[in-house]
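Notebook entry, structure prediction.
Reason for the run: the old model in the group folder had no record of what sequence produced it. Starting over properly, with the input documented here first.
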Amino acid sequence: MDRDDTIAIIGAGIAGAAAARRLHAAGRRVVVLDKGRGPGGRMATRRGPGALRFDHGAQYFTARDPRFAAQVAEWAARGVAAPWGGPGRSVGVPGMTAPVRDLLAGLDVQCGRAVGRLVREDRRWRLAEADGAALAGGAAFTAVLLTCPAPQSLALLAGAGLDLPGLAEVRYAPCWTLMLAHDGPPPLDGPVRENRDPDATIAWVAQDGAKPGREGATVVVQAAPAWSRAHLEEDAADIAERLLDALRDLPDVAGPVTVGHRAAHRWRYARVERAIGEPCLYAPGTGLGFAGDGCLGPRVESAYLSGLALAERVLAESV
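New structure, fully documented this time:
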């Protein structure tokens, strides 16, 4: 590949951000597109009324691989991440989106851009919305790296009559998340409550406002995968009430929970249940690849390492 060519990355989560930063560091031009209102993907922070903020996606990250451990240490040194919630756990500061935003700083990131079609023309790629309207100014790209969840990536590939073998094997569990602002004392004695019982309604409760850099009496409640799957298509307002009732029924909740704000968010592709088992997928000679936690497993670190691996595949082909 010509080093002057531009690479499109679809998805501004941690995998896309890691790939974009690595390619940029190697002198490649990148454009990152995401359908959301801002970067972060499932490392998400939702705004509530006033100054309320909720980490309603990934709750923390850990680092085992030396490459990610070095990145986390560098973030911590600059105040982009900090320990929280247990040994080896870290969070973004002031929100979970902070590490992703840091990786994407200074790059061409276009949010609110829903890619609906991939078009192959003269050994280059063009991106379009579902109705055919051109994206990224109609630019032609040498490579397109898919880092959105596997089902969304599969839909884009199918529309272009393409496939990346192995991608269809990825499976995700959904998750309903409840965001609460409460009055009075916090409902938990500690920062988190975890429940690994597959038959439970609630899998996770966090004192979100107690995380480093946060403000406000806020709590995030995440439903268990089986419960979320069973209630996936129900109304968000009804889900919020159901999860609030389940929170109040927990035996270790400290007294009544007086709610000032509540909202529920549905994640269809929350946690990988079956991964490909490869660092990334890449079709040599086409510039088409896939990275994300669907490759290596359900951890922020896995998505980061997958993004790096895909960037390295692109760079190796351009030598």
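Summary: The CA atoms of residues 214 and 221 lie 17 Å apart.
The old model has been moved to the deprecated folder.
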